[in-house]
Design a protein that fits this description.
With about 100 residues, this protein is of the alpha+beta class. The protein has one domain: Alpha-Beta Plaits, CATH 3.30.70.260. It is about 25% helix and about 25% strand. The protein contains four helices and four strands; from the N terminus they run ααβαββαβ. A four-stranded antiparallel sheet has the order 2-3-1-4. A hairpin with an 8-residue loop joins β2 and β3. The radius of gyration is 14 Å and the shape is globular. It starts with a helix and ends with a strand.
């Protein structure tokens, strides 16, 4: 066990400081986080809008009630991206904070 736990490092989760930094927070509820390609498709949509990503955090049902994907971006996302992101397979709900 020591071999495993000694390798774990604390990481900063940027979600709660994003508003102070004028960054965007995209929260996506998904039906099956293990489905390949969700992150690739969503990040491609964001990249098409010329917006950089600061952090991606995946929340599993063991830690949250639902499977969620959180993407912290260099600036707020335009609302016009919501329909494109909602169209990604396995995406259930999208919120911009």
């Amino acid at each position: 066990m020591k071999q495993i736990f000694s390798k774990l490092l604390p990481t900063s989760y940027l979600k709660d400081i994003a508003p102070f930094m004028k960054w965007g927070v995209l929260e996506i509820a998904v039906t099956d986080i293990s489905l390949p390609g969700i992150i690739a498709e969503v990040t491609s949509i964001i990249a098409d809008s010329k917006i950089s990503i600061k952090q991606i955090v995946v929340g599993y049902p063991e830690l949250l009630e639902e499977e969620h994907l959180f993407i912290i971006t260099e600036r707020s996302l335009p609302g016009t991206l919501i329909p494109r992101i909602k169209a990604v397979k396995s995406v259930k709900e999208v919120s911009i904070h």
